[in-house]
Amino acid sequence: MQDFLRSLPKVELHLHIEGSLEPELMFELAERNGIELPYLSVDEAKAAYQFKDLQGFLNLYYQGMSVLCLEQDFYDLAMDYFKRASREGVVHIDMHFDPQAHLQRGVSLDVVMSGLLRAKQEAEQSLDLSVGMIMAFLRDRPAEEALQVLEQAAPYWDKLDAIGLDSAERDHPPSKFVALFERAKELGLARVAHAGEEGPASYIIEALDLLDVCRIDHGIRCLESDDVVERLYQQQTVLTVCPLSNVSLKVVDELASHPLPALLDKGLNVTISSDDPAYFGGGLLDNHIACAQAFGWDEEAFQALNRNAMKEAFTSEPRRQELL
Ligand code: ADE
Ligand code: ZN
């Protein structure tokens, strides 16, 4: 099964590029940029990756990305991940990135965008990989700031596929970002949002009704409401479910009790992603292997999940047809 899963062409719809920063590269960049880390070694960093909840993770995630300063750093971050993913049989990645987290530290949008776009272009030429760009906004920061950043990104609008909504979900409902998502729609950008990860099922409905999203990132708490499940079923909205992330962030107790099989039983449009592979114990292949072990799914089940993802990936029609 592991060989099959490795060679299966896989599609990653939910990946935070800053969450792909492995401790080895984090240390290299820290040294390059003269930044002090709160860890003495790679092993010490890895040992610190034990999370109580989403906020506990976010604290280390934002601290980790403080080593990203120059265009070359963003290029190295993305290229390092693209090569690793490609070796694992990943053929498409829709990549979230968090501009506000960098702007806040005095790193310009041009630095972030040019590094990531250079890596994307090179990966698309040299690896069998396509990359979608999702500019994500931090829901625990002011809505006005998000809108300003989207306007500031005008030179890059044509390079974006979508906007997303991430960071601390509790007490930051989708309704806070109606104006941002309306503007993105006006600009012809697709829209996705994290909802129902730590937040309630009602946030999923808000994201659908108020933000007009085409995907729900995570969404697993939909199972707490029959109405929400019915809505997701009727619309066949894609859920980008991240099993190892949910275990790491204690959204579920263990993989064996993860709601993935229940979501499939309800006929929902489920896909599998890795979220923040450097922090949650592995990339897309590891997520697949863990699911095979926990749920005993057969080869067709994994083919179907990746077909679901390919249909929704932010890529050109010829590339989609090539992948399907
Ligand atoms: N940013 C990076 N990973 C995230 C997650 N799992 N949930 C919300 N925001 C995030
Ligand atoms: Zn996420």
From TrEMBL:
Broadest EC class assigned to this enzyme:
hydrolase
Site feature location: Important for catalytic activity: 218
User: GO biological process annotations for this chain's record?
Assistant: adenine catabolic process; hypoxanthine salvage; nucleotide metabolic process
Where do the annotations place substrate binding? 276
Cofactor(s) listed in the protein's UniProt record: Zn(2+)
**Binding of Zn(2+), residues:** 14, 16, 194, 275
Q: Which Pfam families match?
A: A_deaminase (PF00962)
Family annotation (InterPro entries): A_deaminase_dom, ADE, Ado/ade_deaminase, Metal_Hydrolase
Q: Which residues form the Adenosine deaminase domain?
A: 9-324
**What is the active site of this protein?**
197
What Gene Ontology cellular component terms go with this record?
cytosol
This protein's source sits in the domain of life called Bacteria
Q: Can you tell me which family this protein belongs to?
A: Belongs to the metallo-dependent hydrolases superfamily. Adenosine and AMP deaminases family. Adenine deaminase type 2 subfamily.
| NCBIfam families linked | aden_deam (TIGR01430), PRK09358.1-6 (NF006850)
What is the recorded name of this protein? Adenine deaminase
Organism of derivation: Vreelandella nanhaiensis
